[in-house]
Amino acid sequence: MNGKVLVLNQDYTPITVCSIYRAFLLVYLKKADLVDQAENQYLRTVSKKFPLPSVIKINRYVSIPYRGVVLTRHNIFKRDKNQCQYCGTTKNLTLDHVIPKSKGGKSTWTNLTTACQKCNAKKGDNSLEEVEMKLRNQPIKPSYVMFLRESNGEVQNEWLPYLNPKKSVS
Predict the structure, then answer these.
(1) Binning pLDDT at 50, 70 and 90, where does residue 168 land?
(2) Is 84 helix (H, G, I), strand (E, B) or coil?
(3) Which of 68, 97, 105, 133 maximizes the CB count within 10 A of its CB?
């Protein structure tokens, strides 16, 4: 039982991801409802079988005051999938200020990107135009839901309606 389960708040907004074991206990103890289950998979006891949870909804609303993603080196690497945003390598990674600090660039989600040491040294204290380099992806500030989706590796199909903010679920 080392799979993951999406946990929804009472209003169907994603809160976190937990283990199958924890999700099953929440449902069994009637602290959460089973919203979706893994197809043709079950938890078995000697005399019963229970559906394997994929998405659960807790029974009472939990107020979460801050649901942003903290700006850290680790989270920037995660957002950029541990790849240099100039050449695509995954070796010798560091952070780069797209607009150099010496030219007024700030340490923000939209100005920090993952770069390998070679590309970072090549860019140096210059703008991208000055050294004729291009970013593979523009750095963005990830939303909590986007980060939850991206940072958990493989996303199950059952999760997609709840992680896609354009679709409404009731």
Answers:
(1) very low
(2) coil
(3) 97
Q: How far is CA 46 from CA 15, 29, 49, 90, in A?
A: 33, 19, 8, 47
To 10 degrees, the CA torsion angle through 122, 125, 129, 130?
-80
Encode pLDDT of 143-163 as tens digits.
Answer: 777 777 665 666 777 887 887
DSSP 143: P
pLDDT tens profile 81-135: 999 999 999 999 999 999 999 999 999 999 999 999 999 999 999 999 999 999 9
Contacts 24+ apart (CB under 8 A), 31-34: 31/58, 31/59, 32/7, 32/56, 32/57, 32/58, 32/59, 33/57, 33/59
Amino acid 103 reads: K
- Domains, in order of start, for the chain: 4-65+143-163 (no CATH), 73-131 (1.10.30.50)
Half-sphere exposure of 76 (CA within 13 A, CB side): 21
